[in-house]
Design brief:
It is a single chain. Helices cover 49% and strands 13% of the residues. It starts with 17 loop residues before the first helix and ends in a 7-residue tail after the last helix. The N terminus is likely disordered. The protein is built from 13 helices and seven strands. Among the domains are: 107 residues, Conserved hypothetical protein from pyrococcus furiosus pfu- 392566-001, ParB domain (Alpha-Beta Complex); 41 residues; 41 residues, no CATH class. The strands form two sheets. A five-stranded mixed β-sheet has the order 1-5-3-4-2, with helices on both faces. A two-stranded antiparallel ribbon has the order 6-7. α5 packs across α7. The protein is α/β, with parallel strands linked by helices.
Length: 292
């Protein structure tokens, strides 16, 4: 039997657990498997499993109520696709066998399900989530649109998480050491012009010289958005006061247009470079950036 990826058309939903949907879509049947034959996925997107005491106590009293998803190996063992916390807690509880749903999946299917199952439970930290999406993009060639459809998140959210995934290792280490885990703040850091600028920005954040941007609430966004008539008038006024720089390719097919307020043109260099860097990163990582 040929191996399959994620069942076609199946997306992450929040009204029923993903494991249940996988079982129904794939017509799989659960069975008990000796716990010594079940092993973790070495590429599990999650690296922290938290306190297992409560889960262990529950399993000791009531057993494992939700089967693990596993993939059979050629040597008769099984790799966990989803449910490593339950497997760890079951070992602590002294179980000799655990309920599993056996699935015949390729690497791509394993990566998708492992990531999405964790995302649905909201168990991943910002780094695990970002790196999980980056793996789908880099290892399996998914576009940002495809990732967004798979995990039921907006394209913008996917772009932001992939930007965070691209932070250099030394910047990541400094962010972790400083306890910086806000997506908004990490994006501020990632959008600095280069590594040196990122370190400078981090220095200012950690010393308190600058404060992280607060995330706007939905109500604030609505109040701050002008109506279409006012927006059109404001745009027309601004157009008369903007300095425009146009850069064209040699064949004339492609253009990059940069605009900034006329009275701020001399001091806008850093902000313009940041915007160009952000545009560069988006285009570099997503071949569908120009498609509707």
């Amino acid at each position: 039997m040929s191996k399959a990826g994620l069942p076609a058309g199946l997306k992450m939903r929040h009204d029923a657990h993903y494991v249940e949907q996988i079982a129904k879509a794939s017509r799989t049947v659960g069975r008990m498997i000796p716990i010594e034959k079940v092993f973790p996925n070495p590429e599990q997107p999650r690296s922290e499993f938290g306190d297992l005491d409560e889960l262990t106590a529950s399993i000791r009293e009531k057993g494992v109520l939700e089967p693990l998803l596993v993939r059979p190996n050629k040597d008769g063992t099984f790799m966990i696709v989803a449910g490593e916390r339950r497997w760890r807690a079951s070992r602590e509880a002294g179980l000799s066998e655990i309920p599993c749903i056996e699935m015949d999946l390729d690497e791509q299917g394993v990566a998708e399900i492992a990531l999405i199952e964790n995302l649905q439970r909201k168990d991943l930290n910002i780094w695990e989530e970002a790196d999980g999406l980056a793996a789908l993009s880099e290892k399996f060639g998914y576009t940002q649109e495809q990732i967004a459809a798979k995990i039921s998140k907006s394209r913008t959210t996917v772009t932001e998480l992939l930007t965070i995934a691209g932070l250099p290792p030394d910047i990541r280490d400094r962010c972790r050491d400083a306890g910086i885990s806000s997506k908004t703040t990490l994006l501020e850091i990632a959008r600095q012009f280069d590594d040196a600028a990122m370190h400078d920005f981090l220095d200012s954040l950690i010393s308190g010289k600058i404060k992280p941007k607060a995330k706007k609430s939905k109500s604030e966004k609505v109040l701050s958005e002008p109506n279409s008539k006012n927006a059109a008038n404001a745009k027309n006024e601004d157009q008369n006061q903007l300095k425009t720089m146009t850069f064209s390719s040699q064949n004339g097919k492609y253009e990059v247009i940069v605009r900034c307020p006329q009275n701020e043109a001399s001091g806008a260099r850093v902000e313009i470079l940041k915007l160009l860097k952000e545009a560069f990163e988006v285009i570099k990582k997503d071949d569908s950036a120009f498609r509707d």
